[in-house]
């Protein structure tokens, strides 16, 4: 599954919110492929765990595990970034 340009923040978007969205997108892109797919399908495509499991060919528990690990990794990245700016 290619999570290409369609999910990136709008390049015409400006301001602090655009910078935050771009930083978030960069964190998503840094995730392993399956975790990235789950996050994109859940939060960008607004699909539920049942549909995501069908698309990815895995169980709902696996979808939830990928989501949990992805969100934890992104929280750690965000925390590390905040610490670096102090």
Give the DSSP E fraction (strand runs of 2 or more residues): under 5%
User: Largest sheet, described in full?
Assistant: none
| H-E order | HHHH
- Unreliable segments (pLDDT under 50, ≥5 consecutive)? none
CATH superfamily: Winged helix-like DNA-binding domain superfamily/Winged helix DNA-binding domain
What is the alpha-carbon Rg in Å? 14 Å
The number of distinct helices, counting runs of at least 4 residues, comes to 4
Task: Please give the domain count.
Answer: 1
The proportion of residues forming helix, as a percent range, comes to 55-70%
Number of distinct beta strands: 0
Distance separating the two termini: 38 Å
Name of the CATH architecture = Orthogonal Bundle
Task: Set down the secondary structure blueprint.
Layout: H1 16-29, H2 33-44, H3 49-56, H4 60-84
Helix pairs in contact: 2-4, 3-4
Explained architecture:
It is a single chain. The protein is mainly alpha-helical and 86 residues long. The protein has a single domain (14-84), classed as Arc Repressor Mutant, subunit A, CATH 1.10.10. It is 69% helix and 0% strand. Helix 2 (33-44) packs across helix 4 and helix 3 packs across helix 4. The longest helix is centred in the last third of the chain and has 25 residues, at 60-84.
């Amino acid at each position: 599954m290619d999570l290409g340009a369609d999910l990136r923040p709008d390049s015409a978007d400006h301001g602090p919110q655009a910078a935050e969205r771009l930083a978030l997108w960069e964190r998503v892109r840094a995730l392993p492929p399956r975790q990235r797919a789950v996050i994109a399908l859940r939060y960008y495509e607004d699909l539920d765990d049942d549909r995501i499991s069908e698309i990815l060919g895995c169980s709902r528990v696996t979808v939830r595990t990928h989501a949990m690990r992805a969100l934890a990794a992104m929280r750690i990245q965000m925390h590390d970034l905040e610490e670096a700016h102090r």
